[in-house]
């Protein structure tokens, strides 16, 4: 019998709203997708790996495609947040660009972003929406993170940029050099030699500043 209008808190989550359980399912799904690939993986495989019942998994995700899309979102978000942390508080435009370039290239040659990208490529003809979701412009997109940094320095007078979105794309291509494509297609399996990374990123900064820098910078 209730004695007041204050709701009783049980400490339990409503169905499909427990973040820890959702992460548990995603962790299991990622292991399965990496091992078997998207097409061969089944929801039964994922339930076994995640240690949950089939009934539980369907409370959180409608189907295998929905689960895969959630994994893409998670990897993209984690990568973008790491890049935003790299640029946080950096006042010198050239140093910020170098940090972005170094971190981006290292992430692309050793992180889980590449397996996620390969998975997207593998199903892109049947599920074109996934590619759009992976590259979507949003606060958790790497390009958007760099755009924010560039816009900040345009306001400070350190850069003169008419098309910030294009400038961000250009710098990402310049600073990643051949590393991204070589990693994506398996030509690089380990870390890029530091000397080569320095050469490419430092050159990218010089080219970018030659195009968009001002005397103030």
> In whole angstroms, how far apart are the ends?
69 Å
* Average residue pLDDT: 84
Sketch the topology as an H/E string, one letter per element: HHHHHHHHHHH
Estimated structural class: mainly alpha
Query: Unreliable segments (pLDDT under 50, ≥5 consecutive)?
Result: 1-10
For the largest beta-sheet, the strand count, sense and barrel status come to:
none
Provide a count of the helices: 11
- Gross morphology: elongated
Per DSSP, what share of the residues sits in E-state strands of 2 or more residues?
under 5%
Q: Radius of gyration, rounded?
A: 21 Å
Helix content, binned percent: 55-70%
Instruction: Write down the oligomeric state.
Output: single chain
Strand runs, count:
0
Secondary-structure map with pairings?
Layout (H helix, E strand, L loop, with lengths): L18 H18 L6 H8 L3 H7 L3 H24 L5 H18 L2 H11 L4 H8 L6 H15 L7 H13 L2 H6 L9 H19 L5
Please explain how this structure is put together.
By secondary structure, this protein is mainly alpha-helical. About 70% of the residues lie in helices and about 0% in strands. The chain has 11 helices and no strands. It is elongated, with a radius of gyration of 21 Å. The N terminus is likely disordered.
Quick structural gist:
With 217 residues, the chain is mainly α.
Task: Name some characteristics of this structure.
217 residues; 0% strand; single chain; 11 helices; mainly alpha
